[in-house]
Amino acid sequence: MNNVRSLLGKAKEDLMSLVIVSVAFFVALSIRIRPADSVFLPNGFVRFSNDPLYHMRMVEVLLHNYPQGMFYNPLTNYPQGSFIHFGPLFDHMIAITALVIGLGNPGTGLLNTIGAYFPTVLGALLVFPVYFLGKHLKDRKTGVIAAILISITPGQFLNRSMIIFTDHHVAETLFSTLFILFFMLAMIQAKKANLSVKMLEHMDKQLAKPLVYAILAGVMYAAYQLTWAGAPLFGMIIVIFAAIQYSIDHVNNRSTDYLGIVGIITFLVGLLLVLPFIHFDMGVSIYYYSWFHLLSALAAMAAFVYMSLVHKEINRRKLNPLYYPLVLMVTIIVALIALRIVSPSVYYMIIATPAAIFKVQTGGFSTVGEVSSIFYRGGSFTLSSVWYNFAMGFFISIIAMFMLAYSIRKEKRPEQLLVLVWTFIMLLAIYGQNRFAYYYAINVALLSGYFAAKVLDMVGWRKIETAYHEKVHSVGELPHFLSKNVKAGHLLTIFILLLLVAYPSYSLAMEQSQYASGANGYWLESLFWMRDNTPDPGIDFLQIYEAPESGERFGYPDSAYGVMSWWDYGHEIEAIARRLPNANPFQAGIGGRSASIDEENRPGAAPFFTAPSEEEATAVLEAIHPDPDKAAARYIISDVEMATGKFYAMTAWTMDTEGYYVSVQTDSGAQYVPGERYYNSMEARLHIFDGDGLQQYRLVHESPEAPTGYTSETGYKNVYNVLYGGNLELTDTGYVKVFEYVEGATITGNAPTGETVTISNTIETNQGRSFTYSQSAISDGAYSFTVPYSTEGPIPGETQFDVRPTGPYTISYGNTTQQVSVSEPDVLNGNVIEV
């Protein structure tokens, strides 16, 4: 009877816990869909941006060619194209969901709606594995608290699971957490059953649970790898944990069979499921499914086999148990030395990969938000990002790590060591790259739940739980039990924990979830304009293209052309404008330098926008394209952020940052302001000066301007007027500006030697704004100007520009004034017009 009552009591507690966790699921979901009204536009477009846009583009291609997906994409990083390093699983999950709900034929609206809500569901689902991890880390109370905390966790975990953040990051977090959970459960059950090789030989009934959990761990590891190619990071975590646990078990004269069996099965299942997706022709790469993923799985299995054999051999020889960890360390050193001799490329990858994750980035990569350190901003130590991502939970988790280490020393439970090792490595990861904050959020929630549960036990809640199990047999008895056993001190402890642990996270989560990080409206306006008003590049947006052979180029049609902009906007240019960006958020096409100012400044977006003259900028465009007779871009898109805040990132990628900003004394003290080198840059010439004076670049469209005071444009113009004698009008202009690179019409004529000859025109934009375009030259008896604007309007099949001169060009010198009209064919073909 007591056993039955105990089982019923546990079932009742499990049910109550799961009810609370289910409520946490709906809380998490409701937070993530708060901005839903702002993401669905009246024209049916959903405001996806950057990587989410790219995923939705791949889902669209996948559904059009189902089940074949895209692996090589020639529509980005023009004229090279890019291989897809995203895992295929996330896109297939969305596609299959759309096929099921859409009864095999989902429309664009349904697909976009499913894509928009997909990350919110995955993010909310994480409350369940977090609950079970917490439950097995300590108890149900820990699991429930951890589940509640992860449901209200702010920062990157929240942002990357918000509506329309349709990126693989939230799936990474879900599958990696499930991987750890099932590996933990397999290990717990294997240790409980005292799993051994002999039991495998006799197919003992006790094998069922640990083997099922080990297989599920392998399935989740495969799912994680097929979501993110860098998933072997978690394989490394498991192997490091296993090495420590093997050493502890060996020194304490305990069997290690349970670890070896679970580890080998997990990695074997994971490998078998990933194997069909490996591209063996890609060499050894962490960025694609390559030999690296095969070798890392085989290495993990070999490590488990080796650690088990060393354990048995040292026991057989009756050597000092402390030799075990020493043998493992010596083996690692010898293996690395041997690998360096046999396969230097693999050796350097093994050495470089952890360094890339755990090391603070420098140069251009330090300007990429997600790969910069969480503890450093602008080279200075800060905790602001820590607070943004975890609130008080981060500091509580550090305390809980020491509490957990003490518990491991006393109880020696492998599952606790697994969580500690996992947490410590992810802490190192966020030190190197703050992108791992959405992973570390799970650790923070778990350890904060562990801390809170420990505190509650210290003030007597464990005794109350025990009494509850013994004395409460019906719901009617609960009020009397609570009034008798729960004191003011217990309630005060809960209140303090809520104030300390939960409230800061919830407050930040509610603040951060007001808006979704969708595509900028100014960019949407400009990209839709580009899609409708520029020539078709002649490549099918939904077709799957074969990658070119190694050393070969993709065969682009003659009609193809690139669009130069900063890498942040590459996916938007491709997915919305359906044009071919030269640079993209894979950090492809940026150019510049990698490690030293002494390197060659490779052609790309950074050298183009920082070029100190039009001629040098054009040389960059020509250098990007392998055909010496072609330039890589026909259009250039700039926004005010590129001209102000993001400009420093462009210089950082070239590793030549001096002189763009200078210190000046003001009434408020010394301030850094744009310098002469900045105003000579191509980006400033385009965006701040509207391309005034440029010979082959013309403004063809601009978006509406941002609200007054929203940008720094007028401030930059004011600095130019004050420091360099300019007369720029102190007004904001279009947030986004689209320029076209053209041959330019050459106007020639005669004028007296020594005369200053000026050509000018008034240009009116589609926003009703006017500015003056002009060039000047000293005549040597003749003059020549190359101009980019047509005075007679667009022609069919070419750019349907809506920025145009208000009349003919005016040429003036001395008392002479002449009018010159220029046709669009003159501009496009580089014709010469004699005056």
TrEMBL record:
<feature type="transmembrane region" description="Helical">
    <location>
        <begin position="110"/>
        <end position="132"/>
    </location>
</feature>
<dbReference type="Pfam" id="PF18079">
    <property type="entry name" value="AglB_L1"/>
</dbReference>
<dbReference type="InterPro" id="IPR048307">
    <property type="entry name" value="STT3_N"/>
</dbReference>
<comment type="similarity">
    <text>Belongs to the STT3 family.</text>
</comment>
<feature type="transmembrane region" description="Helical">
    <location>
        <begin position="438"/>
        <end position="456"/>
    </location>
</feature>
<dbReference type="Pfam" id="PF22627">
    <property type="entry name" value="AglB_core-like"/>
</dbReference>
<dbReference type="GO" id="GO:0004576">
    <property type="term" value="F:oligosaccharyl transferase activity"/>
</dbReference>
<dbReference type="GO" id="GO:0046872">
    <property type="term" value="F:metal ion binding"/>
</dbReference>
<dbReference type="InterPro" id="IPR003674">
    <property type="entry name" value="Oligo_trans_STT3"/>
</dbReference>
<dbReference type="GO" id="GO:0005886">
    <property type="term" value="C:plasma membrane"/>
</dbReference>
<feature type="transmembrane region" description="Helical">
    <location>
        <begin position="417"/>
        <end position="432"/>
    </location>
</feature>
<feature type="transmembrane region" description="Helical">
    <location>
        <begin position="83"/>
        <end position="104"/>
    </location>
</feature>
<feature type="transmembrane region" description="Helical">
    <location>
        <begin position="144"/>
        <end position="163"/>
    </location>
</feature>
<comment type="pathway">
    <text>Protein modification; protein glycosylation.</text>
</comment>
<dbReference type="InterPro" id="IPR041154">
    <property type="entry name" value="AglB_P1"/>
</dbReference>
<keyword id="KW-1133">Transmembrane helix</keyword>
<protein>
    <recommendedName>
        <fullName>dolichyl-phosphooligosaccharide-protein glycotransferase</fullName>
        <ecNumber>2.4.99.21</ecNumber>
    </recommendedName>
</protein>
<keyword id="KW-0479">Metal-binding</keyword>
<feature type="transmembrane region" description="Helical">
    <location>
        <begin position="258"/>
        <end position="280"/>
    </location>
</feature>
<dbReference type="Pfam" id="PF02516">
    <property type="entry name" value="STT3"/>
</dbReference>
<dbReference type="InterPro" id="IPR026410">
    <property type="entry name" value="OlisacTrfase_arch"/>
</dbReference>
<feature type="transmembrane region" description="Helical">
    <location>
        <begin position="286"/>
        <end position="310"/>
    </location>
</feature>
<feature type="transmembrane region" description="Helical">
    <location>
        <begin position="322"/>
        <end position="342"/>
    </location>
</feature>
<feature type="domain" description="Oligosaccharyl transferase STT3 N-terminal">
    <location>
        <begin position="39"/>
        <end position="456"/>
    </location>
</feature>
<keyword id="KW-0328">Glycosyltransferase</keyword>
<keyword id="KW-0460">Magnesium</keyword>
<feature type="transmembrane region" description="Helical">
    <location>
        <begin position="207"/>
        <end position="224"/>
    </location>
</feature>
<feature type="domain" description="AglB-like core">
    <location>
        <begin position="523"/>
        <end position="643"/>
    </location>
</feature>
<keyword id="KW-0808">Transferase</keyword>
<feature type="transmembrane region" description="Helical">
    <location>
        <begin position="15"/>
        <end position="33"/>
    </location>
</feature>
<feature type="transmembrane region" description="Helical">
    <location>
        <begin position="386"/>
        <end position="405"/>
    </location>
</feature>
<keyword id="KW-0472">Membrane</keyword>
<keyword id="KW-0812">Transmembrane</keyword>
<feature type="transmembrane region" description="Helical">
    <location>
        <begin position="488"/>
        <end position="506"/>
    </location>
</feature>
<keyword id="KW-0464">Manganese</keyword>
<dbReference type="InterPro" id="IPR054479">
    <property type="entry name" value="AglB-like_core"/>
</dbReference>
<feature type="transmembrane region" description="Helical">
    <location>
        <begin position="230"/>
        <end position="246"/>
    </location>
</feature>
<feature type="transmembrane region" description="Helical">
    <location>
        <begin position="169"/>
        <end position="187"/>
    </location>
</feature>
<feature type="domain" description="Archaeal glycosylation protein B peripheral">
    <location>
        <begin position="744"/>
        <end position="833"/>
    </location>
</feature>
